[in-house]
Write a structure and sequence with these properties.
Blueprint lengths: L14 H8 L3 H14 L3 E7 L6 E7 L2 E9 L2 E8 L1 H8 L5 H9 L2 E2 L2 E8 L2 H16 L1
Antiparallel strand pairs: 1-2, 2-3, 3-4, 4-6, 5-6
Helix pairs in contact: 2-5, 3-5
């Protein structure tokens, strides 16, 4: 089973399918897209298929820099970030939850940074993602 609720390589998620899959979290999905688009403009969005294990994800980019990835799941979504070391240090100087900081610290380190995922199920989760995006983009 793929991480994303959408694992059919033949077509990216359609708006109606996405809305049905996300359910009530669809409002949070739209809110995050709107926030990133207005805060870090110009932002482009691109659906990408990363294989059978990952499925489809929506990438939000500012120019050549990826802000975040949004991965639709059933009734919630995951936001994935790749954080460079400056962003990791800045995260530790913020008021982000300890569990998230521990996840960042334990994430495997690659040349492009550390990958971390945050499940978004409610407004509190959305606020955390917005803070982490701001930290990433400021670093």
């Amino acid at each position: 089973m793929a991480l994303s609720a959408f694992d059919d390589k033949s077509h990216s998620p359609r708006d109606r399918e996405l809305a049905e899959t996300l359910g009530r979290s669809g409002g949070l999905w739209k809110e995050l897209r709107a926030h990133v688009s207005s805060r870090y403009e110009p932002v482009t969005e691109h659906w990408g298929f990363s294989g059978q294990k990952a499925g489809w994800a929506l990438r939000l980019k500012r120019k050549q820099r990826t802000v975040l990835y949004m991965i639709p799941c059933r009734r919630y979504f995951i936001v994935a970030f790749v954080l460079g070391e400056k962003a990791v240090r800045a995260a530790h100087q913020s008021d982000l939850p300890k569990a998230l900081l521990d996840a960042i610290d334990s994430a495997r380190q690659y040349v492009e940074g550390r990958g971390v995922r945050v499940e978004v199920r409610n407004k509190k989760d959305l606020r955390i993602v917005v803070k982490l995006a701001a930290i990433k983009m400021a670093s």
